[in-house]
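Need residues for this backbone.
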């Protein structure tokens, strides 16, 4: 398990970090995105999806909960997930994410709503908004991410 941090100057730099993540993302990967409202979780996910080939801006999946993206729209299947509206971790089981994970990468916003031990092999990214608009990106990268993150 490795830990690290980086400072992202603005929303453009946050999307660029997502683009770097897209370079190493594989089906079966889980990336959890934590941080307060407006910290940049969706901006980072949008950077991933744009780098994977999504032509339009990805909507926030807050109301859909799970927004799937499949080839040829993107180069690999991705589920962009927002668990903010879930009240009980058991509700995550109903989403079929473990089955979908066999063929897709998962980008999960508000993963704490799924329970603390849901994805122990996930690349865990946390984004905190600073007073000047910069973002502090911290991560915990399990062994499966050795050589892939950080880039």
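Answer:
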């Amino acid at each position: 398990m490795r830990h690290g941090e980086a400072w992202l100057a603005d929303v453009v730099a946050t999307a660029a970090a997502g683009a770097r993540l897209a370079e190493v993302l594989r089906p079966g990967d889980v990336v959890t995105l934590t941080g307060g409202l407006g910290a940049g979780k969706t901006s980072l996910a949008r950077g991933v999806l744009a780098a994977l080939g999504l032509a339009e801006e990805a909507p926030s999946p807050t109301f859909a909960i799970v927004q799937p993206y499949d080839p040829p729209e993107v180069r690999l299947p991705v589920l962009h997930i927002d668990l903010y509206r879930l009240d009980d971790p058991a509700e995550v089981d109903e989403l079929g994410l473990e089955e979908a994970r066999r063929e897709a990468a998962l980008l999960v916003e508000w993963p704490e709503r799924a329970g603390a031990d849901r994805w122990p092999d996930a690349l865990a990214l946390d984004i905190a908004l600073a007073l000047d608009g910069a973002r502090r990106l911290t991560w915990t990268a399990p062994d499966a991410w050795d050589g892939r993150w950080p880039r």
